Structures are given as C-alpha cells and as structure tokens.
Amino acid sequence: xxxxxxxxxxxxxxxxxxxxxxxxxxxxxxxxxxxxxxxxxxxxxxxxxxxxxxxxxxxxxxxxxxxxxxxxxxxxxxxxxxxxxxxxxxxxxxxxxxxxxxxxxxxxxxxxxxxxxxxxxxxxxxxx
Length: 128
Prior knowledge:
- Helix content is 3%, strand content 48%.
- It has 1 helix and 11 strands.
- Strands 2, 4, 5, 6, 9, 10 and 11 form a 7-stranded mixed beta sheet that branches. A 4-stranded antiparallel beta sheet has the order 1-3-8-7, with no helix packed on it.
- The longest helix has 4 residues.
C-alpha cells in the first residue's frame, strides 16, 4: 500500500505560480499511474491532471490546460503539479492520487473512481 503526502499549497495572488508536490512512501511510485484532483467548497471533486507510470502520457482538465504541468520523478518517488497563471477559480483543496490498476485511456485517468490511494490534500487559495 502506498501513502501519499501533498505539499506546496498556500495563498497567492492571481497570476502567480505554485508547485505542488506529492511524495509517496510505503511503495515505489514508479508502478502507479498518478492523478491530481481538486475540490472547492460546495463543488464536486474535479479532475486536474494525470500522468502515466512512465511519464509518457499526460492528461489535463480543460480548465487548467496550458497553465498547469504534471510531471514525476520516480527516483524521488514524487509527482509534481506546476501551476502557472493562477486564477481565483483555481482555489481549492488539491489531492494527489494513485491508481489501483493500470489505466489505458484518457477517460480512465479522468475518473476519480479509478484511484485507490489518496493524500490528505493541500489548500491552494488564489486572491484576486
């Protein structure tokens, strides 16, 4: 079983950047497809980005495409989410997650139900 811990959240102004990290323990991350999701108060959990176990495939939600970049360093057992040009509507708790099985197509990566392991979340607040 893998344990995930997110870090890097905080309070920033619109237009600023943040980099979130998701560190794993318990098992190596290299065998897991990984995703980032977010949830704002009163809203459903939203897919943000995902990356295949090898890093060869990446997927983004429409609202963050061209602003956010997901990456991974399997040697460091860490997944990252670089967030640029932040907007107030990006305010949410951000969660990283590890898939329970191999994912093959984009719709699988975008579905929270395909992820078995979740971190506790890190708060990102973007002021206008």
